Amino acid sequence: MVPAHLTPWSPDGLGDHAVAVWTAFWASRVSGAVDLGADGEALRHWILCVDERQKLRAATLRAPLVKGSHEQLMLNPLFRRTRDLGRDIARAEEHFGMTPLARLRLGVTFLQEQAAKEDLQARRANRRPHAM
Q1: What is the tens place of the pLDDT at every residue in 113-130?
Q2: Distance CA 67, CA 53 (A)
Q3: How far apart are CA 10 and CA 36, in angstroms?
Q4: Measured between alpha carbons, how far is 130 from 22 in angstroms, rounded to an integer?
Q5: Which of 6, 11, 74, 104 could staple 68 via S-S, CB 3.0–4.6 A?
């Protein structure tokens, strides 16, 4: 888990939903596996996809059907883009261990070790004699 004061700034222009997702990711334990230098661009792409998908969802809810070139009603083509963004997001979530199954597949044992360290530190702090 990355301390709040070290959480990378979210990319400019994100909507509230994407900012909340970005913040939640960096508050999670799995973010401890991130090397911002190596992974930063892929994470920025992921959150921009999350943001775009959210914005497109709003647009497709307002207009699920549009007129085609021959005035026929058709499904809004933005649904295809939304689907493609969903695939990109799912790949990133798998890659960065953002789902339970992804974490299981990645075998992120260091997270368990980190949790054990935090637990041990908490226990040690509770056992220390109080200073007078």
Answers
A1: 677 778 778 887 887 665
A2: 22
A3: 13
A4: 39
A5: 74
**Hey, what long-range contacts does 116-124 have (CB within 8 A, 24 or more apart)?**
none
pLDDT tens-place string over residues 2-60: 555 467 889 999 999 999 999 999 999 888 888 888 999 999 999 999 999 999 999 99
pTM, rounded to two decimals: 0.74
Which residues are paired to 33 by β-bridges?
none
Domain boundaries, the chain: 4-127
Is 106 strand, coil or helix? Answer: helix
CA distance 19 to 51: 8
44-to-11, 29, 67, 68, 100 alpha-carbon distances in Å? 7, 18, 34, 34, 22
How far apart, in Å, are the Cα atoms of 3 and each of 16, 31, 53, 68, 113? 21, 10, 28, 50, 17
